[in-house]
Amino acid sequence: MEGKNNNKKDMVILMGCILLLFLGCLAFFSARWYITEFGDTGFDSILYTLFSEMSGTDSAVIRNFLLTALLPALVAFAVLTLFFWAWQGNGERRYPFTKKCARALSLVLSAVMLLSAAVTVDLPSYIAYISQQSTIYQEEYVDPLQAEITFPAEKRNLIYIFLESMENTYMSEEVGGGLPYNVMPELTELVQEEGNINFSHTEGIGGFYNMTGASWTIGAMVAHTAGIPLKVPVGIDRNEYGQDSFLPGVNTMTSVLQEAGYYQTLMVGSDANFGGRKPYFEQHGLDRTFDIFTAREVGIVPPGYFVFWGMEDMYLFDFAKQELVKIAKQEQPFAFTMLTVDTHRTNGYVCRKCIGLWGEQYENVISCSSKQVYDFIQWVKQQDFYENTTIVITGDHPRMDSQL
Q: Which of 14, 136, 238, 274 has a CA positioned 20 to 30 A from the CA of residue 308?
């Protein structure tokens, strides 16, 4: 009986060691894949993405993960398992490890890989961040609906354009960018145009500081419109978070505009549900959402059309023009929010409007996006509603593509 118990105990320990070894391999390669693909966006973005709505994810991302993270992890796991626990047919060990030594070595290696993965995705900083105590909300935060906001008698329309992963680095050093040449001269022209306002932290064309909780799209959108970082409450099922209750009790810019009688819409070229974007906006005053599915319904793209994350920006801007003309005919003021997608990682999406002027594909995609945004703004300027419309153009967050 004692021998059977010992065998059972040995089997449990062995399975535990094997499981930890697999988790170590998977964490090690997954962490490196994530940083290579998306850059150092912070562990909070990883945590949210893993446990949020994933429908509409670019299939290339999933395929790349399977090939460059999961497959190497499985290969490494198989090799290490054979190395530590392989047996010859006569019952003798193939390698000079005792049972205890094999377990100890496997546990040490698993711990090293898990620790390496944690450091790679900056888990220690995230733990330190969530462990901090702060009174900033008690002392500084102002509920937008409690603030004294005075609208003019004739309320101005709002067009809010989020540019995916756009940052001023691709402008020339001369105007505040990071390159010896200017990849996006059209956006530079808009910034410098007389009468326009550039919110900058420098004398040149500056930008904003990327904070924890705002380094990926939905986190950035929340930060822009609610003035707070996105942090899912402890104890909430992240798979369900946002579908029925996304930041309940938080009032946002869209909440203020709803109170002021605005008709509000959101337009994206992907699946609006991805990351909880649709429920966030709809639960805070949005009237209607447009995405790849509605674009198919109205004939902007053919039925079943899907490239990259949905449809490229050249169709998105066509869709925006079509809907803005309709929305502007309504009696109430409107707030139209849109998010581009072509400049998403990795290297962006090359549409037929892209011209290869620069050495890097991503630079060409950035350049193409700059031209399309500029052309869209020029179109807006020709519309009757333009004179009473404020346009905000901003990157949602800095680029994620660490391969550049």
A: 238
d(C-alpha 74, C-alpha 81), whole Å: 10
Residue type, position 51, single letter: F
Task: Give the tens place of pLDDT for each residue, 276-335.
Answer: 899 999 999 999 999 999 999 999 999 999 998 899 999 999 999 999 999 999 999 999
What are 145's two structure tokens? 């609906």
| Strands annotated E in 81-167 | 157-163
More confident call, 233 vs 159: 159
- For residue 24, give the amino acid letter: G
**Residue 244: what residue type?**
D
Residue 38 CA to chain centroid, in angstroms?
9
| Per-residue pLDDT at 66 | 84
Residue 289 tokens, joined: 């959402």
3-state secondary structure (DSSP) of residue 136: helix
pLDDT tens digits for range 46-98: 666 655 555 555 566 677 778 888 898 899 888 888 877 765 444 555 555 66
Count of beta carbons in the 10 Å neighbourhood of residue 16: 13
Distance CA 132, CA 120 (A): 21
DSSP single-letter state for residue 172: B
Picking from 172, 164, 198, 191, the residue whose alpha carbon sits closest to that of residue 397 is 164
Rg (CA), the chain: 26
**In which element (H, E) is residue 264 found?**
strand 263-268
Q: Scanning the structure block, which residue is given the tokens 């800095």?
A: 398
| Enclosing H/E stretch for 177 | none
- For residues 366 and 182, the answer to whether their CB atoms sit within 8 Å is no
The sign of the CA dihedral 218, 223, 224, 225 is: positive
Paired residues of 179 in beta bridges = 172
Chain segment 253-283, per-residue pLDDT in tens: 999 999 999 999 999 999 998 878 999 999 9
- Residue 280 near residue 274 (C-beta atoms within 8 A): no
CA 227, 230, 233, 236 torsion: positive or negative?
positive
* Cα distances (Å, whole numbers) of residue 63 to 57, 60, 74: 11, 5, 15
